Amino acid sequence: MLHHLPPILVICLMHEHAWNPRTTDHCKIDIDRRIVVHPEYLTYESNTRREYKLKAIVVHRGDMLSGGHHFTYALHPGFPHLPDLRPRDQWMLFDDDNQVLAVDETTLFDSFRFPASGDTPYLLFYERV
Fold it and tell me: Is 79 helix (H, G, I), strand (E, B) or coil?
């Protein structure tokens, strides 16, 4: 039960093998870009907005929880006053190994639904809208 809805909702998805808790389990994950917190999960009646929009995904690459690499995809809002600079709501990759890169949204979410690379979404950051 939630006593109040935070402005940023963080959901941890990291999962591990039951037989070996130090290894990760790479499975199909369908990530919702928008979620709504149902009133039954709240301890009070409220007019607070309960809808959240996905803003960032922290990903773990590797087979062991004790090792591997983390990187982040974040939704960049763009520059409304400079529309030619970057399109609005562009997913960007922030990684120690690479420069900041724009990522196609369909390709990004398909990579989690059809895992082949060993990349596992670890943390999801949603912002209340």
Answer: coil
